[in-house]
Specification:
mainly alpha, 236 residues, 10 helices
Length: 236
């Protein structure tokens, strides 16, 4: 027997003891994240639907309204754009089953869309003033969509009701200012649009304030508010 043949063969490498490669780690991470992403998206979508559902039957004013877009915005912050759109669609479908398609549409436009919009702006660390203005524009469009949609279903022009309310407000202002004149229709319509816009601006500011306090507490922070807001919140 030759010396070459007498050399013992090297034991085979035990690949089971090798550390996992980067691709294997990435695959394992995706296997863990995929069900977590699906569960969180479904949970937050159902949370948004439940808040709207409770507020419809037990309205608490601004208390629950500020939370309408926040769960979907949180989905965007945690899992990105696609998951946020899935949450918006899922919440709409769930409300359609629970309350019918009409109320489902009134939630989707503007609050589900607003959740996606706010999530996108917060994810990109956009300043508050920009995200509030964009949300105000969407909220104002949502009010006009609601007026048009409900007018279509009821067969009555609900814009006339809004105009009548604004007319009374403007006449009261004119009376207390001592102005002996009657507001024309254009002024009344501009006043109605201004009141709707201001109302949405205040609403979006409160949403940002609540989201800042709430999401910071759970580790999903949004952009810092203006300095004067931080000073006010720190004031004892």
């Amino acid at each position: 027997m030759s010396i070459v043949n007498s050399v013992p063969e090297e034991p085979e490498k035990d690949t089971s003891l090798e550390s996992p490669t980067h691709s294997q780690l990435q695959y394992q991470s995706l296997k863990v994240e995929s069900p977590l992403k699906m569960v969180e998206t479904a949970f937050l979508a159902s949370t948004a639907s439940l808040i709207w559902f409770i507020n419809s039957y037990f309205p608490l004013g601004i208390v629950l309204r500020v939370f309408f877009p926040i769960p979907i915005a949180l989905v965007y912050l945690r899992w990105g754009k696609r998951a946020a759109w899935m949450a918006a669609v899922t919440s709409g479908l769930l409300l359609s089953v629970l309350m019918g398609p009409v109320r489902s549409l009134l939630f989707i436009m503007p609050f589900a869309f607003m959740g996606v919009l706010l999530g996108a702006t917060w994810h990109r660390r956009v300043p508050w003033i920009v995200s509030i203005i964009l949300g105000t524009l969407l909220g104002t469009l949502g009010v006009f969509f609601r007026l048009w949609f409900l007018s279509l279903l009821s067969g009555e022009d609900l814009w006339v009701y809004v105009i009548n309310q604004v007319t009374e407000i403007i006449e009261w202002i004119f009376l207390h200012l001592g102005l002996l004149m009657t507001p024309n229709l254009l002024l009344i319509q501009l006043g109605a649009i201004a009141l709707i816009t201001i109302n949405n601006f205040i609403y979006l500011f409160i949403v940002h304030l609540v989201a800042w306090l709430l999401l910071d507490a759970i580790g999903n922070s949004i952009p810092r508010p203006p300095r004067w807001v931080q000073v006010l919140m720190d004031y004892d």
